[in-house]
What we know:
This protein has no helices and ten strands. It is mainly beta and 128 residues long. A hairpin with a 2-residue loop joins strand 1 (4-8) and strand 2. Residues 56, 58-59, 61, 76, 78-81 line the site of FE2/S2 (inorganic) cluster.
Amino acid sequence: xxxxxxxxxxxxxxxxxxxxxxxxxxxxxxxxxxxxxxxxxxxxxxxxxxxxxxxxxxxxxxxxxxxxxxxxxxxxxxxxxxxxxxxxxxxxxxxxxxxxxxxxxxxxxxxxxxxxxxxxxxxxxxxx
Length: 128
Ligand code: FES
């Protein structure tokens, strides 16, 4: 989907949805057109907005938006890797070392804006 962009303080942000479309406690997957790997998960938890990569680094599953939210963390529904909502950091290093990228997200004039995730082709796709 193509999203409208807006430049704020020299940085480009994208209007991804109306503020009432992001419900408390229910994540949404946002996919950018350029590549399957350009996707994020957004959340509103206790009124705070969070934006993380939607792709779990464990098995490259596009499931973080479906994660279980608890104690400021989101747990991938597939095998339980757990990440801090604010920082994206992996909070259980016994599971693995990789974390989720986090992105800016904010609300302006009843619209939710995020910064666009960079295109990072994962190693396993690099021979495509
Ligand atoms: S794919 Fe997320 S924990 Fe395995």
